[in-house]
Each structure stands twice: as structure tokens, then as C-alpha cells.
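It would be a great kindness if you could assist me with a short task in structural biology. The matter concerns a single protein, recorded as an amino acid sequence and a row of C-alpha cells. Kindly check, if you would, that the fold set down in the C-alpha cells agrees with what the sequence suggests. Thank you for your consideration; the sequence and its C-alpha cells are set out here:
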Amino acid sequence: MAWTTPRDLAAILLSERWYATIAGPGNTGHQAKFRVAAFGAFAWTAGGTILSAAAAFALGRIGFDRPIDPAKLMACTGAVMGAWSTWFALATPEDTWDVTERLDTHLRGSFFKALFFPGLLLGLLGSGW
């Protein structure tokens, strides 16, 4: 599909005009739900990331006096990207039987792939570094 690049997905997520260009006139009613689901999944993922970082800080695994470890940073970034995409893909139910007609149903899979696979790559690189 033509909208599977991360740049296009970001434009679709943030721009009503871009979404309308791809979805066609009269089919933009579901963009708000798509946007709420994407940002809601991000909020939950960010909350879990903050709690995890706070626990690691409290246990002394990370700190302001330590240098940044690139391997850990890559692994954490990959985990966050994978978690966000998975939460978004699995936690947003479909509300239609005919998924071939609505753009937001197609975008879920593209959004998942655009975040999950680079996140998986970063996580594996960080783990093997």
C-alpha cells in the first residue's frame, strides 16, 4: 500500500487533509477514532515506560551519574516502539464487518508494521551489542 512509510503514517495521523486525500471525500469520519486510539495507546505505553524507568532508577540500574549506554537505549527504544504498535493493533477493536472499505482499518496493520519491525530491530541490536 502507498501509505506504509512512517512519514506517511505520521501525516495521516496528524493531518485531516492528508487523511481525506487517501480516504476520499465523505470517508473522514473515522480519523478521529483512529487518532484517539493511536494517542491513547501511546499514552499507556509512555506510562508503562515511565513506571519502568522509575523502578530502574529506584533500584540503581540507571542514574544521572552514569553514562548513557547505547545498547540499552536501543533496546529500550525498540521495546517502546514494539509495545506501542502492539497495544494499538490489539487494543482497538474493529467496529465494522467490511474492513475493505475503511481506511483506518487498513492503517492499523500499516501502523503496526511501521513501528513494530524497526522496534524489533532496535531491540535485537541493543540486546546483542
Residues 31-58 form the longest helix (28 residues). Residues 1 and 120 are 22 Å apart (CA to CA). DSSP finds five helices and no strands in the chain. Residues 6-128 form one domain.
